[in-house]
Each structure stands twice: as C-alpha cells, then as structure tokens.
C-alpha cells in the first residue's frame, strides 16, 4: 500500500498525471469537451487509479496541493485545444475547507489564458451536505469568475433535489448506476426522462455518465439527454491521445 510519504514524494517529483475522457453531444456525437481524471504512474505498481489514493490525499490534506496542480495542469492543456472544447475538473470537499479555492482557480485561468467559460468544476452532493451556506457562497464566488459548476454523480446522493433549488448548476451528470441497467429496466428510462426534464426546466445541461453501448446512447437520445460520456465515446486517455482525437474529430 502506498503511504503518505510516497504520495508526498510523487507530488514533489511531479509524478502525477492527468488523463482525459471525451464528452460528446448525443445528437451528432460532436466532441464537446473532456473530463480530467487523475492518475499516479507508480514505478513498481503500475498506474494507480484515483480511488486508491484520493482517500489518502483527503485524509492527509494533500488533496489541496494536488487539487491546485490538477486545476492548473488541466487548464494549461485545455488552453491548447480548439475554443469550443471545455475541460471538466473534479473537486473534493477538502478543497473547499482549506486553502483559497477561488484564488487558485483565478490564478490558473490567468496563468494559462484559458477563458473561464471553458472550465467546468465538478462537485458531488456530499459537498452540499456539509455546510450548505458556506459552500453555496463559495460556489457563487467561483461562478463569479465565469466558470461553470457541474453536479457529479447526480441522483445517488443525499436529498439531491434540494440542491437543485439551492444552487444553479450549469450541468447535471447522471450517475453511471442509472445508465448501466437502462436497457433492461424501463423504470430507469423514466428516471432518466425525469432528470432530463428537470434539467430543461432549470436550464442545466444533462450529461449521462458511463455510456457503454449504442442501445444506451439511443435510449438517452430519445429521452432528450444532451450529452454523453463513457467507454462508447472513449476511455480516459493521456493528453497526447486526446490531442490526436481532437485533430481527427475536426
Ligand atoms: O477514472 P476514475 O477511476 O478515474 O475516477 C475515479 C474517481 O476519482 C471519480 O469519482 C473521480 O471523480 C475521482 N477523481 C478523478 N480525478 C480526480 C481529481 O483530480 N480530483 C478529485 N478530487 N477526484 C478525482
Ligand atoms: O468523477 P466520476 O465519479 O464521474 O468519475 C468517472 C469514473 O467513471 C472514472 O473512474 C472513469 O474511469 C469511470 N468511467 C468512465 N466511463 C465509464 C464507462 O463507460 N463505464 C465504466 N464502468 N466506468 C466508466
Ligand atoms: Mn467526475
Ligand atoms: Na460521476
């Protein structure tokens, strides 16, 4: 198992990397952006996935410097892409508790020259469970910079609908759990249709996560879901592969 010392060393050596997973418009499969996903290429253990070290990073507070690096690196990469492509970055609750997140984001945009509207920050419902008023204030400050805020893993968390009323998200990402069984259970089509309807009324773009089959994409398109992300459209890939995909897609 990796230790705090290993992780500190990885940060010091700038050994962490970002992979990028494509997001597409369902109607015509047009590339609309990528989600940045953190990876730790370990000298002996191969590529360590984030589920294995983000909990450690959160416990130790290392997620704050790691998260700041992720924001900066993702913005720097996206600044090289065509102007119509966005970059989505995941945020941990700890990043809201410590450090100056608004300054970190503003600084990353200023340094990389990425226009704010091309950056999307993904949060999960667990964040809003903590201290809703403080968090909502911070989210408003972030939005004040011109970035958009997406609710990740939507539908699985605690009292989801209350959050939609509390804060104007730019995007709702329907959790993979709802998409996986979409072909087998019509109840799930109804749930997806309801989320899509909510998104339309509240002016939030709805994205389906974990789209793996053509049939899932077909059902989602029929329900009016706007965008998809998942293995059908592309796995998370290194920056150079993402650049090649962008070039092929133009
Ligand atoms: O590809 P996947 O195994 O990459 O990601 C697993 C989980 O790790 C997801 O829930 C994702 O939100 C989270 N994750 C990936 N990259 C980051 C990151 O840069 N910061 C945070 N806080 N979470 C991340
Ligand atoms: O941030 P979030 O929790 O949404 O992280 C996305 C996670 O989902 C990452 O671990 C990513 O590798 C994974 N993922 C992305 N697309 C698919 C997919 O089509 N199927 C499955 N099983 N996992 C996916
Ligand atoms: Mn995410
Ligand atoms: Na998610």
TrEMBL record:
Ranges for domain EAL come to 1-250
Q: Where is the signal peptide?
A: none
Q: Which domain of life is it from?
A: Bacteria
Keywords in UniProt for this one? Membrane, Transmembrane, Transmembrane helix
What is the designated name of this protein? Bifunctional diguanylate cyclase/phosphodiesterase
Organism this protein belongs to: Falsiroseomonas oleicola
């Amino acid at each position: 198992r990796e230790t705090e010392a290993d992780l500190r060393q990885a940060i010091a050596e700038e050994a962490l990397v970002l992979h990028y997973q494509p997001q597409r418009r369902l109607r015509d499969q047009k590339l609309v952006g990528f989600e940045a996903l953190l990876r730790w290429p370990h000298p002996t253990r191969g590529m360590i996935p984030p589920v294995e070290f983000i909990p450690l990073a959160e416990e130790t507070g290392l997620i704050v410097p790691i998260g700041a690096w992720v924001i900066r690196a993702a913005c720097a990469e996206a600044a090289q892409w065509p102007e119509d492509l966005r970059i989505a970055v995941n945020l941990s609750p700890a990043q809201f508790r410590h450090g100056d997140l608004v300054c970190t984001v503003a600084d990353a945009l200023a340094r990389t020259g990425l226009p704010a509207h091309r950056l999307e920050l993904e949060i999960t419902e667990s964040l809003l469970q903590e201290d809703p008023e403080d968090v909502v204030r911070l989210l408003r400050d972030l939005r004040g910079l011109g970035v958009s805020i997406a609710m990740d893993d939507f539908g699985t968390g605690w009292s989801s609908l209350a959050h939609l009323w509390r804060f104007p998200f730019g995007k709702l990402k329907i959790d993979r759990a709802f998409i996986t069984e979409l072909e087998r259970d019509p109840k799930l089509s109804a749930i997806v249709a309801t989320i899509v309807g909510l998104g339309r009324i509240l002016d939030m773009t709805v994205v389906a996560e974990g789209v793996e089959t053509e049939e899932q994409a077909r059902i989602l398109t029929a329900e009016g879901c706007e965008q998809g992300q998942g293995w059908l459209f592309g796995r998370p890939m290194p920056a150079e592969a993402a650049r090649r995909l962008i070039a092929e897609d133009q």
